[in-house]
């Protein structure tokens, strides 16, 4: 059974922010974990010595931030969410739309990430990890032969997701996923003619996979760097 989590009374003119702060503190301390249900709105208001409207405002804020999700019904309430890179992707994408991060910044960040990640991948990737990447490349080849252009961007996201998992580092997996998800959104805006040619993409994937299977991080990075820069040019010209 989940142990009861109690909260301290809040006294401030910015009440809902302090409520959010206390809930985040319970997460940081481990008293609250993903999947846990927060106390009912009335009980939270009583424990924190705040109004129920302040509780509702705090829960809305935490829901937007991706910390909790609200479930309706008799067994509903506010539940702590499982961690996902979705919110991270949204924040970075908003910064790009607002002009705070450029596409060049995004490409440089991805290259820097993979430069640090690929030595780790070459050291830690299992045979099953590499087989999953090979299967993705085989699916890409089949899609290209069948003329299924709509599938390519999603296979690309899947490829980078699998590559991140090869690191066996959760922080890297989440960061990699968030950047790859942003790239997917931009790639979907391009027409098939604006993307990197299918034959070039497939050849690059095969070379990269060959270097990875040989555990040669330097050669793999050289190949990936060339591809990412070519992808950047396609995105920039397609804007």
Please characterize this protein's 3D structure:
Keywords: DNA-binding, Transcription, Transcription regulation. Residues 13-83 form the HTH gntR-type domain. The chain has 239 residues and is mainly alpha-helical. It has two domains: 15-80, Arc Repressor Mutant, subunit A; 86-237, GntR ligand-binding domain-like (Four Helix Bundle (Hemerythrin (Met), subunit A)), CATH 1.20.120.530. Helices cover 66% and strands 3% of the residues. The protein contains ten helices and two strands, in the order H-H-H-E-E-H-H-H-H-H-H-H. The chain is elongated. It starts with 14 loop residues before the first helix and ends with a helix. The mean pLDDT is 89.
Number of domain modules:
2
In the CATH hierarchy, the third-tier topology of the largest domain is known as Four Helix Bundle (Hemerythrin (Met), subunit A)
- Summed up, the helix count is 10
Rounded Rg: 22 Å
Largest sheet: 2 strands, antiparallel
Q: Give the class-level CATH name of the largest domain.
A: Mainly Alpha
Q: What is the CATH homologous superfamily assignment of the largest domain?
A: GntR ligand-binding domain-like
Label the CATH architecture of the largest domain. Up-down Bundle
From the spread of the alpha carbons, the general shape counts as elongated
Average pLDDT metric: 89
User: In terms of structural class, how would the helical and strand content be classed?
Assistant: mainly alpha
The amount of helix comes to 55-70%
Residue fraction in strands: under 5%
Order of helices and strands: HHHEEHHHHHHH
Low-pLDDT stretches? none
* Main sheet: strand order: 1-2
Task: Find the count of extended strands (DSSP E, 2+ residues).
Answer: 2
Roughly how many Å apart are the termini?
A: 53 Å
């Amino acid at each position: 059974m989940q142990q009861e989590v109690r909260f301290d009374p809040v006294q401030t003119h910015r009440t809902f922010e302090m409520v959010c702060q206390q809930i985040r503190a319970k997460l940081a301390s481990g008293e609250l974990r993903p999947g846990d249900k927060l106390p009912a709105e009335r009980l939270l208001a009583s424990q924190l010595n705040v109004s129920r409207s302040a509780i509702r405002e705090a829960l809305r804020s935490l829901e937007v931030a991706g910390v909790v999700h609200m479930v309706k019904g008799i067994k509903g309430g506010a539940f702590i969410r499982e961690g996902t890179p979705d919110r991270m992707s949204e924040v970075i994408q908003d910064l790009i739309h607002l002009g705070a991060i450029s596409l060049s910044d995004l490409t440089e960040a991805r290259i820097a990430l993979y430069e640090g990640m690929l030595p780790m991948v070459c050291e830690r990737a299992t045979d099953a990890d590499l087989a999953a990447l090979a299967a993705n490349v085989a699916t890409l080849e089949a899609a290209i032969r069948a003329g299924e252009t709509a599938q390519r961007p999603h296979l690309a996201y899947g490829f980078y997701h699998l590559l991140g998992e090869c690191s066996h580092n959760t922080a890297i997996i989440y960061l990699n996923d968030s950047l790859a998800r942003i790239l997917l959104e931009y790639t979907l805006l391009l027409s098939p003619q604006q993307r990197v040619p299918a034959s070039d993409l497939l050849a690059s994937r095969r070379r990269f996979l060959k270097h990875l299977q040989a555990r040669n991080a330097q050669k793999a990075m050289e190949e990936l760097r060339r591809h990412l820069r070519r992808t950047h040019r396609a995105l920039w010209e397609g804007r």
